[in-house]
Amino acid sequence: MATTQTPAPAPAAPHARAVRRLGVRARHDARTRLAAGSALWLSLLLVTWWWVTGGGIRDLGGWGSGLESVGRITGLTSAVLLLAQVVLMARVPVLERAFGQDELARIHRIVGFTSFNLMLAHIVTITWGYAGGSPTSTPRTLWDLVVNYPGMLLATAATVCLVMVVVTSIRAARRRLRYESWHLLHLYAYLGVGLAIPHQLWTGADFTSSTGRQVFWWSAWIAAAGSVLLWRVGLPLWRNLRHDLRVAAVVPEGDGTVSVHVTGRALHRLPVEAGQFFTWRFGGRSGRSRANPYSLSAAPDGRSLRITVQDVGDGSAAAAGLTVGSRAWVEGPYGRLSPRARTRHKVLMIGAGVGITPLRALAEGLDYAPGEALVLYRTSSAPIFVDELHELAQRRGLLVWGLTGRRRAPDSWLGSGVEAPTDLAALTSWVPDVAERDVFVCGPRPWTELVLRDLRGAGVPEQHIHLENFGW
Amino acid sequence: MKRIVLWVLSTISTVVVLFGYHTSTSSVMATSREGTFSGSLSGQTTSGSAAGSAAGSASGSGSTTGGSAPPSDSGSTDTSGSSSASSSTVTGDVAQTRWGPVQVQLDVSGSTITDVTILQYPDSNGRDVEIASYSLPQLIQETLDAQGDSISMVSGATYTSQGYLQSLQSALDQAGL
Known about the structure:
The complex is a heterodimer of chains A (472) and B (177).
Chain A: E1 2-3, H1 16-20, H2 24-53, H3 63-88, H4 93-99, H5 101-130, H6 138-148, H7 152-169, H8 171-176, H9 179-186, H10 188-202, H11 211-243, E2 246-254, E3 257-263, E4 277-282, E5 292-295, E6 304-310, E7 328-334, E8 347-352, H12 356-365, E9 373-379, H13 386-396, E10 399-404, H14 423-430, E11 438-444, H15 445-457, E12 465-470
Parallel strand pairs in A: 8-9, 8-11, 9-10, 11-12
Antiparallel strand pairs in A: 1-10, 2-3, 3-6, 4-5, 4-7
Helix pairs in contact in A: 2-3, 2-4, 3-5, 3-11, 4-5, 5-6, 6-7, 7-10
Chain B: H1 2-20, E1 37-40, E2 45-48, E3 87-91, E4 95-97, E5 100-109, E6 112-120, H2 126-146, H3 158-175
Antiparallel strand pairs in B: 1-2, 1-6, 3-5, 4-5, 5-6
């Protein structure tokens, strides 16, 4: 292991204010997460309650009526979760701040698959139940339902949309698709949600049979559609028009990476923190409809933003060909790998490859006393930001350890030359107080999974681990 | 970009075509058999008449001996003097079921039920109409065959059957059968 830094004395930082407020926002976020989870739970409880008062449990007694009853409750819960997973991906600021986009995407996946499975159960049981529980007449009943019942042809189209979205999101299929193709196909989920509504209103008596139900469902639909229009479409549009971001400079950082400096109007009004990322589109080059998520690689100073890009996938390499003055379109800022998540005085940052970029910004943007912040920087090629990290070490007392060389074993997140028998032993010998620190981790997913394994092994509480994966 | 536009256009076109289908823009059941259900003894036919046809279409043939058809409106009692036995119309109480009300009207000639008319049944959505359209004719036929309330429930139409039976019994009580 190569150590590339020395702690340097620095003047006592004026971070008393920050220390006093340490964890205030993190606790607020924890409450928001609890409230959001409770809201979803209570919605499910409410529709279940309506199902029960409508005789849902009593109907379970008979075979045909039981199937219909199961069909009703699976349909209702599926509809609630379907809307929930739309809201989860609507970039709702309060959710983005509280969960972070990684976590939202993870929950979205779970909620989405659950909703889909319930929808399949709904289709099977309701058709079977309408057929009086007879398997042989079920196909005929299905045809009758699709052709003759109000809104059911649209519901069938909605099913097709959702099946397509889910099939392309199964991991094996998703790996074969370009991100952009997958994302475009994913937009059909909105169509699916919309096309499902007529049959819920016209054929599903449980949606409209009381004022309370109508209020609940219309509010839910309006909230979901409103969230998407307001925050997924409207807010980015407004921010881009307001800030008018332009490429100000493109600077090679060596080893196939370039930094892109972006300036714009009134950037001090853009609510962004070190460690966050935007989704970027650059005008004036081919494939500008493609968006790439890049973290800021410097703490935002209110005048400019900087990202640092490696040639990792579609569109990245083209960054080097960007021309000064071309327009940058962004969505964001997103991500919780920021001072917002912090609860502890001492900080450990672990990054691999280009995953160092948000940590580089954090090392600048976080408040810490000399010696309180440590960066473990894993890279198998030439490190970037060497000078900048050195300067932070000099000025702020940041500790930086480089973990270079080839990976020492397939299941190791460390480079060759580490003598400790296990990665965990290495980690705890270098950072004995790791369990007392906030740990910010950024890197490619297989690598971060190994890091997380050892952080947990070292006794770091889950709420102190802040993770950003890149790649998809 | 061109491919995306083509995708969007074909998607919109498909949706437009889908909305052209009649079930996509109307909450009314496609094969709605809304209307009245009635059955008479003489014809031994039980039918649901289609929407729009008058309630009396089937009950017109309901008299056993004479030629005079009882009025089709839901008056509670009505006697027709032309027949040898006294013929009357009795209306059962409204039975509230989970899906809606059921009300039965009987034409009785002497001690014979000659005609059964359903004045109300659950029809608030397509499924209710669907259930009514197959269960009510069966229930009516069973009533005429059994000449009383010893009839069996129609499977898959438990609530409608229960409501029917309840209203039927009150009608039978009124008729003194």
